[in-house]
Amino acid sequence: MSSGANRGIFRSLMRDPMGAFGLILVVAFLIMALAAPWIAPYDPLKISITERFQPPSLAHWAGTDQLGRDLLSRIIFGARTALSIAMTAAGIAGGVGLLLGMIAGYGPRWLDAFLVLMFDSMSSLPMIMFALAVITVVGPGTGTLILVVVLVSIPGYARLIRAQTLSLGSADFILAERVMGASSARILARHLLPNVVGPLVIVLSMDIPVIIMLEAGLSYLNLGVRPPIPSWGNILYDGYTSLRAAPSMVLIAGLPLVLATLGFTFLGEGLRDAIDPKLKVRVPR
Amino acid sequence: MLNYAIKRIGLAIVILFTVMLSMYAMVFLVPGDPASLALGPRATPALKELLRERMGLDQPVLIQVWSFFRNAATGDLGYDVWSKRPVFDQIMEFFPNTLALGAVALGWALVLGILLGCAAVVWRGTFMDRLLGVLSVGLISIPAFVIAIYALLIFAVWLHWLPAIGAGQPGDIVSQIKAVILPAFALGIGWVGYLARLVRASMLEVMNENHIRTARAFGLPERRIVFRYALRIAIIPTIAILAVGLGSILSSAVFVETVFGRPGIGTLITGAVQKRNYPVVMGTVLFMTAFYLVVVTAADLLIARLDPRIRDVFRG
């Protein structure tokens, strides 16, 4: 994609108020995640029992939790946890999905049939049920979380890429390459790859909020990111258990999740409208 | 049609088989012995051996797989490692609560979603249409369990309008209805947005089709065109999505059920995962997958009946 095309996408994104709002939120969360150690006012792990359950104040903008830890600092570091997991997982899943999808779409018929059956079986597993099954076997933790997201996301990406590859495989310019004696590897890497990544990027960006939701949900159940590492999910759980003692805590703890999922979804929608309006939206989880 | 039905059901069975096999493979591929993991580092060898026997892990792998399949086919999903109760009985005890929650959530979402979708079609191109569009996307993206916690705080803790936990008293329908309102609200709200969008998109597509133009040309009133001819076709993608929806809503009910302490499949499986209770986790996942496949296959067959074009696509 040329830089001119990129500028066009950016401009049409900014013209759409929803897309612009999404972009601003996403950039804010990215800065929060990258610069967490410098912008967080306190150490997110520092316990101070004398200061527990403080309401929002000038010293602690978002108040403190049941162990007296600064809530704002925990939320800022939680952004780091959420985004690093979401991006790692989406990156790996996108890469593997791309590879498998191109193999299925361009390889022999029997391999295609086998891979499609695998994708179908994987996507008939309810996502959260599958996640819980994997966690039971492997044990909870950040690595498991990424593994689960990668496994459940691959079929969707692979199917998308497979469909793209199939429709491109019989295009004239590919036939011409083949007639001229180009190897399959060359055709896949040089000609198919650049043409199939576009839709994948949009779908990946639209899946980031789903991954953030899953990470928070599983961490909420204490089956995801392990405490004391701050995650928006376990912060929310801390708030939930102190619902009556400090209701402000749970109210504030839910906000980053709401804003981040809104931001990424709006940005994804905006990107899709700007690049490929016909792409299908996902089913809510 | 019969041909299509046989193919579709066959595919579902093959998928279920593959799923079971890969779940079994997963347990064996992962290093570590499930019995020691479940019991923790301080368990005695004798206790581990007992648990291994109870999980059926002392048998050769192939025998284990075979007996798992044979038993599952007859509805025997094994026994809870800790309470020794049959897993199937536990699922049957909890599943109705989850099903009721999912049905109520999807039900209210469907009614409101179709209404909003039709409203957007009537107002297409206006500010209201755009506002409904943004609202739909917003509703889709916010995680259900965050909404559940906010709803719990506002309506149960602060206002005391509705109960905060449980599924109501058995036999007392009023308390059961009261207990389902908040969880169903939280679980369904994302679907309102999604269905509104879906109905709007498919309605707009149908309104441009030839037979609608023909109906217009024959001078049929607009309302009759929308409800007799357009909605009938526009509803087809909604049915397909509803089936997928019931499956995914029942599994995302896990979080909402936990927030409201509602006895259901979600609370059953999360408890089992935390205690590494393999038979319960495996049995529940298998049951939910089978249920999901049945619903999706049934919906596919229903759609094929409503829309012959889909059958032809499958054949080709």
CATH architecture of the domain at 90-274 in chain B: Orthogonal Bundle
Based on helices, strands and strand pairing, what is the structural class of chain A?
mainly alpha
Radius of gyration of chain B using CA atoms only? 24 Å
- SSE string of chain A, helix = H, strand = E? HHHHHHHHHHH
N-to-C terminal Cα separation of chain A, in Å? Answer: 32 Å
Percentage of residues in DSSP E strands of chain A: under 5%
CATH fold annotation of the domain at 90-274 in chain B: MetI-like fold
Report the CATH topology name of chain A.
MetI-like fold
User: CATH superfamily assignment of chain A?
Assistant: MetI-like
Largest sheet of chain A: none
Largest sheet of chain B: none
Q: Identify the CATH class of chain A.
A: Mainly Alpha
SSE class of chain B: mainly alpha
Distance between the termini of chain B: 14 Å
Report on the structure:
The complex is a heterodimer of chains A (285) and B (316). Helix content of chain A is 74%, strand content 0%. Chain A is an all-alpha fold. Chain A has one domain: MetI-like fold (Orthogonal Bundle). The longest helix of chain A is centred in the last third of the chain and has 37 residues, at 184-220. With 316 residues, chain B is mainly α. In chain B, 80% of the residues lie in helices and 0% in strands. Chain B has helices at residues 2-29, 34-39, 45-55, 61-73, 87-122, 127-141, 144-158, 173-207, 210-217, 222-259, 265-274, 278-306, 308-315. In chain B, helix 1 packs antiparallel against helix 12. The mean pLDDT of chain B is 79.
